[in-house]
Amino acid sequence: MAPRVPNIDDALLWAHDPNATEQQLYVAADTLVSWGQLDLADQIIEKLRQNPAYGRGLNRLSAASRQLRRSGVLEDLAAFSADGGEVIDGRHEAFTARYDGETRKAIIVFTGIDPRFWLSLMMLHLFLKRLNTHIIYLTDLRQLIFFDGLETVARGYDGLRDALRGTLDSLGVDEVHVMANSAGGFAGLRYAIDLQAKSFLGMSIRTDLSVDSRIPVGGFFKRQGLRDVAPHMLIDLKPELIKSRYPERVILYSGDGNPVDRPHALHLADLPRVEVNLLPDHVQHDVMAGLLARGQLEDVLRDFVYGAGPSTAGNAP
Q1: Is the N-terminal amide bond of 247 cis, ω within 30° of 0?
Q2: Which residue, 18, 121, 144, 287, is the most exposed by fewest CB within 10 angstroms?
Q3: Tens digits of residue pLDDT in 139-161
Q4: Helix-strand-coil percent breakdown of the chain, rounded to 5?
């Protein structure tokens, strides 16, 4: 089992604890920004600025906070709450947000160890719902990164794949888009192949978990639990992509300076339908935070679904 990831409750506790360490306060600020609790986050950021060791990270969080304020999602959140909308918090393994209008598109979201996409799922939803699609959120609470399906949906890789097909059919979907983050990215890409996805958007994902891989992966992916549950899933996805026509488009993002995320993205860079995007001067695993801070996130999401390209993505409805 991976270490427990700090959540919004931890962040709120540390934010109001006079004995919290600077590291706890930094994690609290990071989490609070990702949940859109910006006033409290900004207070912590200013408090930590006296320590130059946090300068770069604080600048990124401040920029992300400003972009969230400019984006209008805070107003959307207030309206969503006023309408009695159900909070999407990753505490359920699966949640389907149906689009009220006409659409044949769906986005399937695979989270990582942390049931966030750096952005909390609620904040991510406020961006994704602007794309006018159905959205299916998946979180593996057993931390088996979807290798064994989902306990409350369908067990086994094949079981979850078939369950997703059934859900997509019931929604009347004929165009599937898959996005995945961090530890959820490997299985997310595998499901995108089998679900014949139109596009796949991967943020800091792993692409080769084969035993003889020379790409670093970290201890989380070497756990005996994964080998016990699904040894057949520990493969290199590159040959699978070569054999399949799907996803029709693979879009990968990584920090240019991340020693693990970067080589996994570049592993697929020579395939013709793969686009690798490296964020300059970004070392952290939270590439979504980097895109938000740079004001690029909405264009990236629209391009992922509508294929208009980051500079002209406003053509999407």
Answers
A1: yes
A2: 18
A3: 999 999 999 999 999 999 999 99
A4: 45, 15, 40
Tokens (6 digits) for 43: 């207070």
pTM of the model: 0.93
Cα–Cα distance between 276 and 236 in angstroms, integer? 17
Sheet holding 199-203, edge to edge: 94-97, 134-138, 105-110, 175-181, 199-203, 249-255, 274-279
Nearest of 314, 288, 280, 289 to residue 299 by alpha carbon: 314
Exposed, middle or buried: residue 86 (CB in 10 Å: 0-12, 13-18, 19+)? Answer: exposed
Angle of CA points 111, 215, 277, to nearest 5°: 60
pLDDT of 235: 95
Task: Please report the domains of the chain, with CATH numbers, ordered by start residue.
Answer: 8-71 (no CATH), 88-283 (3.40.50.1820)
| pLDDT for residue 312 | 32
Distance (Å, rounded) from C-alpha 200 to C-alpha 177? 6
Q: Are 129 and 101 in contact (CB under 8 A)?
A: no
Pairwise CA distance, residues 248 & 303, whole Å: 14
- DSSP 8-class letter at 236: B
The overall average pLDDT reported for the chain is 92
Q: In the structure encoding, which two tokens stand for residue 246, read together?
A: 């799907």
Alpha-carbon gap, residue 113 to 3, rounded angstroms:
9
